[in-house]
Write a structure and sequence with these properties.
The complex is a heterodimer. Chain A is mainly alpha-helical. In chain A, 58% of the residues lie in helices and 5% in strands. Chain A folds into two domains: 236 residues, no CATH class; 122 residues, no CATH class. In chain A, a hairpin with a 5-residue loop joins strand 3 and strand 4. Chain B folds into two domains: 167 residues, Rossmann fold (3-Layer(aba) Sandwich), CATH 3.40.50; 80 residues, Alpha-Beta Plaits (2-Layer Sandwich). In chain B, strand 7, helix 6 and strand 8 form a beta-alpha-beta unit. In chain B, helix 3 crosses helix 4. Chain B is globular, with a radius of gyration of 24 Å. Classes of the chains: A mainly alpha, B alpha/beta. At the A-B interface, helix 1 and helix 5 of A face strand 1, strand 2, helix 2 and helix 3 of B.
Chain lengths: 404, 328
């Protein structure tokens, strides 16, 4: 008897909470997926992506073949093609999410306001959280249907090799987090702005700042921080010659920015890594670098300069024991001719194995999830009419003039 | 009859503008209650507060014993609301529209199915079940919106200007629908700025102006309270002399303050008295040989009284005052 009372009490409450969420999501999805439009869009998207993949494949193959013709890395040609296709598809999908995710939610609340349907929703017992999450869920479902419809296409890279399934999982995990964060951000602007137009402009301005702005800002900061010194510190790192397996070679690389701070004459510290956590391009570079054989590829170089740590991919570079004896090394300093850099040996221990993967993107994904959670929390405060961001401060004004 | 909706000292201020200045209402269970007032009187504000969409600056309101301030969630379950201006979702069929709101109230699937069929029958949209909502006429959308407010079988219905933008036929249909809902035991609160629209439909009325109740009670009570004199119109047959004689007969009655003959053969009678007096007046006129084709209380008399009641407050908006001297 007592049990039935509690279930009777709990049942409707639970159903109300989740039912509300599904109510909004079902309604939204019905609208979005109705008719041929949605399916035509998916077809168009996958078709475009396929064409793009073919183009990347052709370019990568040409490049790899010419390299192989020089007697280079023929055993890795196929892997390199696979990696290039993977990088291309991941980059394109990230861009699709960057452009589509905010667009899919910037009208979520403001359109209801403009069409005067929000009041109808607000007088139902739906919680604001259910409204916000239902909207976000349905908008993201649509974006993610697009993204995940490309999974079979992306799987083509396994034909070529060079990319591990975990890399693909990494890629999709990041894209998912990015979509959640950007979608929630668009939803927040939709709840905060009166008009959809304003919400769209604000969303894309923010996306622009996050993608291009942080990158440019980072470069600018770095330029300010690293004053030109007469002798760029370098470190020697050991690697393996691709062509001759087992033969160790010394590689001269500029000392990473973060560790060079003491010897640099600049007063400004280098830009913090956190500045580019939200930058999707850096995260994509990190994931792509994870598959790379070449630690000096574009992707890996970008990640290395951001993190201040040397990174390398999964390629044939492997960890070697540090050399015992000093080797004289001459380094071209760019202005004054060759200088002896032997004393720099061992200044920084090679860090190949310690940071091959997952240098930035996990932080990026986490940052986007935090952005998403904060945006949802703020949207919940704004979704009902008369809602405000900050709690209403009780004003002790003059009592309202109630005259008889 | 116990009050199911009460407001006590409702005050609402928008950025310094006083929209409600201490509004008190008592609406009995099962009534069709009309809230009448000119534009800007505070009707929509009142309904929005009752619908938990707005928070009053001061005062409180209760629906079925639940405070709109303290337990808005429970209030939302007992009321259905149809706003003045409402939109419809694109890309949605009629049944999906009701299904969506049914889900919002957490109704299980089988109950939703039944509810949709019943409500579409009630609002006479059963044959539009699979039509798109945006393709319906304004009157149909209005009825659908009314149906949406009924999905959870609320005991109180708040309808803000439900007849605005409807053609006469749709108005009649709406009125019939509301009467039917009343027989189902719903308490209905309707706002309008057009008094005659409510006069025939409502059991009780409150006339509000500048955020305050000017007059409240049953339609009859308000009429007698407001009425200094009623206006009757009598259409009299005959030529000029006969008409003039008829006017004189009316004018001679002690209850008649004024009797004027219009060009179209209608005598307008300013009458002080109740319905008994009006019946006696008519009997005397017929007895005096006046050929009366029609005798009726002027249809818009309450409207005119309504305008009188609310007019003094509008003096400041009525244009240049006498001090301006006028021009012309």
């Amino acid at each position: 008897m007592a049990q039935s009372v509690t279930t009777a009490r709990r049942g409707p409450r639970l159903r109300g909470r989740f039912g509300g969420l599904t109510a909004v999501a079902v309604k939204e999805l019905r609208g979005r997926m109705r008719g041929r439009r949605a399916f035509a869009l998916i077809t168009l998207y996958v078709g475009t992506l396929a064409l793009f993949a073919v183009a990347v494949y052709q370019i990568a193959r040409t490049a790899a073949e010419s390299q192989a013709a020089l007697g280079g890395t023929s055993p890795f040609v196929s892997a390199q093609v696979g990696q290039a296709v993977f990088a291309g598809i991941l980059l394109l999908e990230t861009l699709v999410v960057v452009f589509l995710a905010p667009a899919s939610t910037t009208g979520a609340i403001s359109l209801e306001r403009e069409k005067q349907t929000l009041d109808l929703l607000a007088v139902t017992p739906l919680s604001s959280l259910a409204i916000v999450l239902g909207k976000l869920f349905s908008a993201l479902t649509w974006v993610l249907v697009l993204v995940f419809s490309s999974v079979p296409l992306t799987a083509i890279v396994f034909v070529f090799g060079g990319v591990a399934p975990e890399d693909m999982v990494r890629g999709y995990a990041y894209v998912l987090a990015l979509a959640v964060g950007l979608g929630a951000l668009g939803l927040f602007f939709s709840a905060a702005a009166r008009r959809t137009q304003a919400a769209t402009i604000l969303s894309y301005a923010t996306v622009l700042v996050i993608t291009i702005g942080t990158g440019v800002g980072w470069l600018f900061w770095q330029a300010l921080a690293s004053q030109p010194t007469s002798q760029q510190p370098v470190v020697i790192q050991r690697g393996v010659d691709f062509a001759v397996p087992g033969k160790a070679v010394d590689v001269v690389v500029p000392e990473p920015a973060a560790t060079s701070a003491p010897s640099s004459s600049s007063t400004l510290p280098g830009p913090p890594e956190a500045l580019v956590w939200l930058n999707p391009l850096v995260a994509v570079a990190d994931i792509v670098c994870g598959t790379d054989t070449d630690p000096y590829s574009i992707a890996c170089t970008a990640v290395a300069s951001v993190t201040g740590r040397q990174v390398a991919g999964t390629g044939p570079i492997m960890d070697l024991p540090a050399r015992e004896e000093a080797v004289p090394v001459k380094v071209w300093n760019g202005a004054g001719g060759w200088v002896d850099a032997s004393n720099n040996l061992g200044a920084v221990a090679p860090q190949f194995s310690s940071s091959t993967r997952d240098n930035v993107w996990p932080q990026g994904a986490l940052a986007w999830l935090v952005v998403g959670a904060v945006s949802v929390a703020l949207s919940v405060r704004l979704v009902r009419p008369g809602g405000r961001l900050l709690p209403r401060t009780p004003r002790r004004g003059p009592s309202p003039e109630v005259t008889a | 009859m116990s009050a199911i909706v009460t407001t006590r000292g409702l005050v609402k201020r928008y950025n310094g503008t006083l929209a409600l200045a201490g509004l008190d209402l008592d609406i009995g269970e099962g009534e069709i209650f009309g809230l009448v007032g000119p534009n800007g009187a505070g009707k929509t504000t009142t309904l929005s507060i009752l619908a938990t969409l707005l928070q009053p600056t001061a005062g409180d309101a209760e629906i079925a014993g639940l405070s709109v301030l303290r337990s808005p969630d429970r209030v939302r379950r007992v009321l259905g609301f149809m706003p003045d201006a409402f939109g419809v979702y694109d890309d949605m069929r009629v049944w999906e529209y009701l299904d969506f709101f049914g889900r919002c109230y957490g109704l299980p699937a089988d109950r939703r199915r039944r509810m949709i069929a019943d409500l579409l029958e009630l609002v006479d949209l059963a044959d539009k079940r699979d039509s798109y909502v945006q393709g319906l006429s304004r009157g149909m959308q209005q009825r659908l919106c009314l149906a949406h407010a009924l999905v959870h079988d609320p005991s109180v219905l708040l309808l803000d200007e439900p007849a605005s933008g409807l053609d006469p036929r749709a108005r009649v249909e709406l009125r019939e629908l509301l009467r039917e809902l009343r027989t189902l035991g719903k308490t209905i609160l309707i706002s309008s700025h057009i008094l005659p629209e409510l006069e025939e439909l409502c059991t009780s009325l409150a006339i509000i102006d500048h955020g305050r109740v000017v007059a409240a009670g049953t339609v009859g009570e308000i009429e007698t309270r407001l009425r200094a004199g009623a206006v009757f119109r009598a259409r009299v047959l005959g030529d000029g002399a006969e008409l003039e004689a008829a006017r004189a007969v009316f004018a001679a009655d002690p209850g008649v303050a004024s009797a004027a003959l219009r060009d179209d053969g209608v005598v307008e009678i300013g009458f002080r008295g109740d319905d008994e007096g009006a019946a006696a007046l008519l009997a005397r006129a017929v007895g005096a040989g006046v050929r009366i084709a029609s005798f009726a209380r002027a249809a818009s008399d309450l409207e005119e009284l309504f305008l009188q009641v609310t007019a003094p407050n509008h003096v400041d908006e009525a244009g240049p005052g006498p001090a301006d001297g006028g021009g012309g």
